[in-house]
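Issue: ligand-bound run for adenosine-5'-diphosphate - logging full I/O for the record.

Environment: standard queue, default settings, no custom constraints.

Inputs:
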Amino acid sequence: LERLRLGVMFGGRSGEHEVSLMSARSVLGAIDPKKYEVVPIGISKKGDWLIGPQAASYLQTGEEKGEKEYVVILGSGQFQLVSLKNRIDSLSLDVIFPLVHGTYGEDGCIQGLLEILDIPYVGCGVLASAVGMDKGIMKMLFAQAGLPQIPFLSFKRRYLETHLDRTIESIARQIGFPCFVKPANLGSSVGISKVREQAALKEALLYAARFDGKVLVEKGAEDCLEVEVSVLGNETPKASIPGQIIPINEFYDYQAKYLDKGSQLIIPANISDRMTNKVRELAIQAFKAIDGSGMARVDFFVKKDESIVYVNEINTIPGFTEISMYPKLWQASGIKYSDLLDELIELALDRYKENARSLRSYEHS
Ligand SMILES: Nc1ncnc2c1ncn2[C@@H]1O[C@H](COP(=O)(O)OP(=O)(O)O)[C@@H](O)[C@H]1O
Ligand SMILES: [Mg+2]
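Outputs:
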């Protein structure tokens, strides 16, 4: 049997660079070398591309060593590596796992690059990635699909800067307090504030607007559990057992996610069978609403008395270390980490095959 040549892509110009390195280390540690020849592909914080041994060393140390070796350009079905020593090497890959969270990785940019390269890749395509990243557009599609959501308003940065008083007034009137203010296109809780009173709104709005050109304001979900479900598949996606997050801080902010130990992942989530079925069903609907493929994690707020459930968001490249929620939920549902990788790679090849069926030229007869 031929081994597949798998590119594992990590790093990137995003606030979630380090998280991506952790995810990639886990994948490289668990992948079956009998089935795959792995080629690490690192993107440094500056945006330099590192391939092979240089990338592997970057993954270990988090530091770029030696001279920059290659400039990467695109060829059909290949990365052309133009070495700065005037050699041209070609790197053919059968499939790529883009494990780049956040900006440029989870938002359709890398996916677009891989489409142009004509290489199959794991996870959502361009459209679903872009939509999943933009909380404003995501919510519009969820609403269209009839999914239950917490009330929200969305403002363009230019608008709120020039109409600050009017913006604050309408938030106070239509959303109330506490509310959550967030940049539309970001993750890892960066730029998010919980606002308890009107006097604190201005600062929170301007803070979120430093990170993105669009700002979202949501009603605060109170007395709620944070419940998460993993989704896996293409046309017929399946949903995992739900898990629950208990943040160590007042909400699941950056500090609670990555810095303080003590936030807990509870699997299965502490909810009834009825609510379990409900969130699994909603997770699949959310995945389909953005035209997802491969994988995604869908996050919910569930009222403690289970009278209400809201879809919070979908993450198309969720944390992927062995102790991250996405793989742990599959583990609890009977799919172990290395088998999950096999399944995701199969789904990538399957979607590529399905897309390739579409004609790319047309001759009128
Ligand atoms: N409307 C809300 N009500 C209550 N808590 C919220 C609300 N929105 C966000 N949070 C808290 O902030 C965290 C991060 O918000 P989220 O929308 O998931 O952004 P990110 O994409 O950065 O993860 C959530 O996990 C939750 O703890
Ligand atoms: Mg989140």
